[in-house]
């Protein structure tokens, strides 16, 4: 039987107005940790594919258990929804909506959250998380806003050649910390850009990042390119960056 403490969660629906996004706004879901108190302040995890992170990644359930059972410092989670029909255009760095999405993230989303919630405002207390293209767009947001973001969770990141080229053009990435996992059964995954060997993409990205001084946690293990694999890793990914009180 599920412990009822894990089911008593506060998840709010919010809408961020935007002058950068063509639709003029973006829907969010915001998890507030157990015991949330506006007089305190909390780290914030920003998730691409917000709906999937909550529904398939079960991140709110994992966060509640980590906070209540393992003593992790309470934290806020912001899930940023995406229209799957334009996801690649927003998340891929050569997509037609990518520049606008990155501007929205840095110029509108972060201020919106920090004005409305008891969010810490240091770059060490903001965390970006994403799966597949969500992992790579998290990196590109951090590269565009290093004053805001220095920590990234990438679950089977889609580090296509254009992303690798952008990494290669960077000089010093010693300010950046990444948690990267990849499934060993992801060697021929079909995407809307073609079939890719995600293991090779991640190995190449890891090498480029390490050569530029980025701090890496990197692991390859059995798994496919799907939430059944990533969901199991969400708790460890969160524990990598969020400390025990």
Automatic annotation (TrEMBL):
GO molecular function: hydrolase activity
Domain of life: Bacteria
Signal peptide extent: none
Matches recorded under SUPFAM superfamilies: alpha/beta-Hydrolases
InterPro entries reported for this sequence: AB_hydrolase_fold (IPR029058), Esterase-like (IPR000801), Mycobacterial_A85_antigen (IPR050583)
Keywords: Hydrolase
Hydrolase keyword on record: yes
Protein's recorded name: Alpha/beta hydrolase
């Amino acid at each position: 039987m599920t412990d009822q403490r894990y089911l008593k969660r506060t998840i709010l629906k919010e809408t961020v107005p935007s002058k950068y996004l063509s639709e003029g706004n973006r829907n969010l879901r915001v998890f507030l940790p157990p015991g949330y108190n506006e007089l305190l302040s909390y780290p914030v995890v920003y998730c691409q594919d917000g709906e999937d992170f909550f529904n398939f990644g079960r991140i709110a359930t994992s966060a509640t258990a980590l906070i209540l059972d393992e003593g992790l410092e309470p934290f806020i989670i912001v899930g940023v929804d995406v229209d799957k029909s334009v996801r690649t255009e927003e998340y891929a760095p050569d997509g037609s909506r990518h520049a606008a999405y990155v501007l929205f993230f840095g110029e509108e989303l972060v201020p919106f959250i920090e004005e409305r919630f008891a969010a810490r405002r240091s770059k060490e207390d903001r965390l970006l998380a994403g799966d597949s293209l969500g992992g790579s767009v998290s990196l590109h947001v951090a590269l565009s806003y290093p004053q805001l973001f220095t920590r990234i969770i990438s679950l089977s990141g889609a580090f296509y050649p254009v992303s690798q080229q952008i990494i290669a053009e960077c000089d010093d990435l010693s300010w950046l910390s990444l948690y990267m996992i990849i499934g060993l059964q992801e060697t021929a995954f079909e995407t809307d850009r073609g079939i890719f060997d995600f293991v090779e993409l991640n190995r190449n990205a890891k090498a480029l990042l390490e050569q530029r001084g980025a701090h890496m946690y990197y692991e390859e293990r059995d798994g496919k390119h799907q939430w059944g694999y990533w969901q199991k890793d969400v708790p460890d990914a969160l524990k990598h960056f969020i400390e025990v009180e």
